[in-house]
């Protein structure tokens, strides 16, 4: 992993000055504060830290499941604006989307790749 002032590239993954603030009734919670890093293609990255430090929040943003408060994520030269078939995440829970059935969860990836058409 290279931590750097991100100079976006067309290869790899760039996390560019990402901040995430959750707004709650009790006040704002700063989950990520100005995070920048670059992961080269075929490079392996491990995120380590204590519970509540923002690891899962960063992964959810990279996967497009959450939006940043500030900053951007660029994968292979394209800004991430939502979920995509070019990224995946293994969740701690057994289901991807809890509001979907097991079958619908399995079909989700296939539909993204256009290997399965809704009936």
UniProtKB/TrEMBL annotation:
Record Gene3D superfamilies: P-loop containing nucleotide triphosphate hydrolases
Q: Which InterPro entries match?
A: ABC_transporter-like_ATP-bd, ABC_transporter_ATP-bind, P-loop_NTPase
PANTHER family, alphabetically? ALIPHATIC SULFONATES IMPORT ATP-BINDING PROTEIN SSUB, TAURINE IMPORT ATP-BINDING PROTEIN-RELATED
Any idea what this protein is called?
A: ABC transporter family protein
- Keywords assigned: Transport
According to the UniProt entry, its GO molecular function terms are: ATP binding; ATP hydrolysis activity
Native source species: Pectinatus cerevisiiphilus
Give the coiled coil ranges: none
Pfam families per the UniProt record, alphabetical? ABC_tran
Tell me where the signal peptide lies: none
Determine the domain of life of the protein's source: Bacteria
Where does the ABC transporter domain lie?
Answer: 32-112
């Amino acid at each position: 992993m290279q931590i750097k002032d991100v100079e976006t590239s067309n290869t790899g993954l760039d996390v560019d000055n990402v901040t995430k603030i959750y707004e709650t009734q009790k006040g704002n919670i700063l989950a990520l504060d100005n995070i920048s890093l670059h992961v080269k293609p075929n490079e392996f990255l491990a995120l380590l830290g204590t519970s509540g430090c923002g690891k899962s929040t960063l992964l959810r943003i990279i996967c497009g499941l959450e939006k940043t408060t500030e900053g951007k994520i660029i994968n292979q030269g394209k800004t991430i604006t939502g979920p995509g078939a070019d990224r995946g995440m293994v969740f701690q829970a057994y289901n991807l989307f809890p509001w979907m059935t097991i079958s619908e969860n399995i079909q989700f990836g296939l539909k993204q790749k256009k290997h399965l058409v809704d009936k």
